[in-house]
Amino acid sequence: MRSIIKLLPSSADHPRLGVWIFGVAWLIGNMSLIIGSNGGSGELPAGVGFAIACASWWGGYRLGGTKSRVGTAVGWLVIGIWTLNLLGALLSAFSHYVADSFFWASVVMLFLLISAVLISNEIRRSSPA
Known about the structure:
Blueprint: H1 2-7, H2 14-37, H3 43-65, H4 69-92, H5 94-97, H6 101-126
């Protein structure tokens, strides 16, 4: 039983683990955005990959990745990079991306992720501690 406990991080390590999860989510998300933006037959796997990246970002957030200044900076930096990637794609080839299903699915996933964070913060603030 002790060996299992050693594998699981303590609650003091959760913010640091959350920052690492943000980094992994950033890598998966960027690869997915690059693959999906090129079009072709890779849009569905790229969409699933971006959904996994958003879910892992949310996991890092819930694990405590934003309980430190570094975690907060890294977490929002990842969201900012993804947003700039999508905006840059839209501005560079508007007529192509305005009709692209992968682009809009990624925008919706990113919007849902940001909305979930804002709603979670509001619920946390308004709940009696």
